[in-house]
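Q: I have 247 residues here and want to know how they pack in 3D. Can you give me a structure?
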Amino acid sequence: MFYSGGFVFLILAVALCIHAVRTNQQMYWIFIILFVPLLGSLVYTVAVLVPELMGGTGARRLGRAVGDTLDPGREYRQARIAIDDAPTVHNQMRLAAAAAGLGRYAEAEQLYAEAAQGIHADDPTLLLGRANALLELGRYEEALAQLEKLGDDEPRSPRPAVVSLAFGRAYEGVGRFSEADKSYQSAAGRLPGLESLARYAAFLAHTGRRDEAVEALADIDRRIAKASPQFRREGRIWRDLAAQALA
């Protein structure tokens, strides 16, 4: 039985390697399948075969997530190829987002700036993407200038939560703390995940409101304790940001 099962896994691994070659997958998949036969075959099936067979958005997103974990630079390389083939605004935006995802914020900012020309000068996605890159570079006044092009809050039409978070960071960076507080609160109350709450806790700590920051950190801890293991890993990154501000 052992030898029979091993033979089956070997045949499966060979079949998956053939599929990887015929569908032009990245070569690292072959090494994963061959050197970690059982686990490698399982990962390849989940990351490549299932999305291919199902064709759904959720399946494709799962495949990209697994692939990006194994090869963080994959999306950047693919976006670079796409923009070399067709230098469209969409492809520039894709490459800029990939660069930002790798921490290459100066490159991302330049790409967003180059894309935001002519009829695309006021594109909200480009403005927000460039503003976020500028925030990571510590260029807060420039980031705020980009965000202000998105318009002001309106009582019946508040800013999207991601925009409120960016405004909060920009206002904090230029010392407009009252406006930063309102924007952070708005984002923390609406944005999924823990980034907005963690950044608000750090802001409270930086501006001398330690008791409120401690309370916000406790709220983060409660949310992490109730979260799934996958969410906890990401949540601890933001928890550490808030905790360091309080240290």
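Q: Anything worth noting?
A: Residues 1-5, 55-62 have pLDDT under 50 and may be disordered. The two ends are 58 Å apart (CA to CA).
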